Amino acid sequence: MATRNEAPALMAIHPGSILKEELIERGISQKDFAKMISMQPSHLSEIIKGKRSITKPVADKLEEVLGIPSIDWMNLQIGFEYDTQQNAERQIAEMAAYNTLQEYLRYFDVRTLEERLGKVHAYCSETVEFLKTVFKLPEPERLQLQTQGLFKKSGKVGKDPIKIMTWLLLAKQYAYSNVLETAYDEGRIDELIPKISAILHENENTIKRLEETFAEYGILFGVVSKVQGASIDGYSFEYDGHPCIIVTMRYDKIDNLAFSVMHELGHVKNRDYDDFNIDIDDYDHESPREKAANQFAANALISDADWKTVPKVHLSPMIIQRTCSSWAESKGYNKWIALGRLSYQTGMYKFKTDATRSIS
Known about the structure:
The chain is mainly alpha-helical.
């Protein structure tokens, strides 16, 4: 259902409609009743059609002929006028909400946010209130300041800035709705890194163990599924004093997850995550801090010293895969994480996948 730009109207009942029903009930014609109250038939017709108000003198005549108190007619008239005014004000407010919503639509996909949370609304005012409350959004002009550099046009698949921003808002909302009790102590992060690496290499009940282990160190970890058109693997930011790492798991591959998690943990360690900070330039061409996070991830998963001992084989992908896998298992590493690093460094992606590559 399309979002409407008009508010639901209050039931504004003109007293003329009540008078009409009263005359029908009593079997009195409008022409005869006009004579009974000494009123021009055209004036009575306008009252009944809601085009003319019931004044105090008219209300007194209605009481005299029908026996219905004058004060009741006046209260009906006042109520009608109040509801009419309220309707007008609500339409003005709804139009303002519509304009706000149009501005938000320049930056993110509103319908995707509603559908992900199962909260599709019929009216613009409801949608704007939902966005501001659930996603803690500022006014559009302030949002524009926070996202400068993000909304460059891009025709590349998976790099639609509106879809990217949509996913970022979903990632933020995940943090807003999940509270951690343990305080974050950056002095313990070097203690955490090998624990996360071990979980990833073991690949057993991986997501749950990551959530629990990160939480023990005051870091929020979660999975927010991808938004079509936004090729994001992970995002790190800070909320309420806690670093947050959110991944998409857009590939069911342990090597992809491992690198994404460690890459974002590198940003946390380096304290180089900012609010709403994804730059399309960085997204297309790695910035120095992205390169640093990549290097951190690779070394945290497999030490550079160990990586230098990988046997050098320049034959077919099958032999390279077998040799690298054997080396990884001898070192206690997950073979797919090792093969993933090899693929990233050499551009060789023709390794034969098996069930052990899936995230357990």
